[in-house]
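Appendix C reproduces, verbatim, an entry submitted by the partner laboratory led by Prof. M.T., so that reviewers can inspect both the input and the predicted structure.
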Amino acid sequence: MSEFERISELVLDSLWPMAVAMVQVTLPLTVVSFFLGLVIAVLTAIFRIADVNFLKHVSEFYIWIFRGTPLLVQLFIVYFGLPIIGIALDVWSAAIITFSLNIGAYASEAVRAAVLSVSKGQWEAATSLGMSYAQTLRRIIAPQAARISLPPLSNIFISTLKDTSLAASITMVDMFMVAQRIAARTFDPLTLYVLAALYYLVVCTILTFLQARLEKRFSRYV
């Protein structure tokens, strides 16, 4: 068997298990973590904008911690470190909690900037119409902030998809972990890691295309 035939056979044998791991583990981990992280980001942004010093300081401290430390270190602390103080989490819980908190810290700045970019005159106009703070935020500010924050949040989502490969370091059997196991068994890491890179590249390209379509659709309302 020639080298080309060996590599071709290895690629064909690896395509399906890696695709299954991408669909069953990598994508669900990305979607769930991003959704929870976005909820955290919105709450954190509101706390920072609100005129309540305690909430503002807590939010700033949270952002400082998670933006100032590596994601890999955060994963190790949650999965390997917390059991020492009696908090043992399964790999899914540890990964989702860590990714969500990390996403929340980064996305909160995008959300806050989007909210603050809305003209103050619109806040004043809503107040003059008798709207409460919550009504103004929900009916007037949030729709505009959503459009403005779409590009940075989409970039964070795509980055999260790639960052999920770090979950393999805490034994999560995601697409990258499957590639690692096949590489260890076949002694051909170059082929498997290039194949994993191509998987990420294809999915990120699709997401980038969808992002462009969403931005174009939202731009109709400008």
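The longest helix spans residues 3-49. Additional entries are available on request from the coordinating office.
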